[in-house]
Design goal:
The protein is mainly α. It has helices at about 1-60, 70-85, 90-100, 110-120.
């Protein structure tokens, strides 16, 4: 009778521990799945933003600079896209577009100015001019 009680206790503890491990594993699995879906959504948003980048660049070409604050920039870009008749972007896509526009590369003139200012300027040696009549 004592062995039967001990056996039931061990079985109960093992079922309890197994269910705890299963619940922990299930939560971890859901967390990893959610992270992967989030990354996939980020990739899709980036693809949409890069596909529309040329159109956005053309729309921004003759306009004053966008505001520096992210929320104001997103609101202005959203209004600009709606005024131009383009499909609306999601909040994630607008956030990515704002990040890209904030970290835009310097212009070609700024890049060349920086490149050439850091290089020493050297000229090739001049050839000596012989003024003797034999060289003519």
């Amino acid at each position: 009778e004592m062995v039967l009680g001990l056996f039931g206790f061990v079985i109960g503890i093992s079922v309890f521990i197994s269910s705890g491990l299963m619940a922990t594993w299930w939560c971890r699995f859901r967390s990893v799945s959610r992270d992967q879906r989030s990354r996939l959504n980020d990739v899709q948003a980036l693809k949409h933003v890069l596909a529309k980048m040329d159109v956005v660049a053309l729309l921004l070409r003759n306009r004053p600079p966008l505001p520096a604050h992210s929320n104001a920039m997103q609101a202005e870009l959203r209004a600009l896209l709606m005024d131009s008749g383009l499909p609306a972007m999601s909040t994630r896509e607008l956030a990515l577009l704002c990040n890209i526009l904030k970290h835009e590369q310097p212009s070609a003139s700024e890049l060349s100015r920086h490149l050439y200012s850091s290089l020493p300027i050297t000229f090739p040696p001049r050839p000596e001019i012989n003024a003797s009549p034999a060289g003519l």
